[in-house]
Amino acid sequence: MTVTHPTPVHEIPLGIRRKAIAVHEAGHALVAVLLRRDVTEALLHPPDGLSGQTRFADAESAPLDPTVEADRRRVADAIVVLMAGQVAETEYWRRHASLYSPRVNSHRSDAAEILTLKSGLALGPEQDALFTGYCIEKAKKLVLQDAAQAAIQEIAMGLCETMSMLRTELDEIIARHRVKLPK
Fold it and tell me: What predicted TM-score, i.e. pTM, was given to this entire model?
């Protein structure tokens, strides 16, 4: 039986909520590595690990030109990385649907960043819908493959245990599970 009403957050054990955040960050980190972004670490913020972050060596500091195809691809990849956290966490909660149906609000900062990135592309409503659909489907294709799910689970477990995982550890896990970019 699936829970159909939203579960109040205080009724979800801390460990379950922490694991959801860890899965979210693992989704970001895995896809960022696959898309050759310069990830330095994934982490959960102390004291409870109920928020997290995927860190990069350097933020994109050069201005992007939306008329340049390479810049548009960089924006699309950045959006796919942001959406990957949402996709991973949604899958986590789907697997726990018989016990919990939370109102997930961990996506707000990702959604705001996505809007900021898309604003520079000057897309009309139809183009925006197509572009967003493309990014979501790419994130799903990367995150929902079996090897990626296994890697995400291992990364999330490590994050729950140590609160931080460096790039070398991420690379080892991704290689061990043979996660690749789908063709």
Answer: 0.91
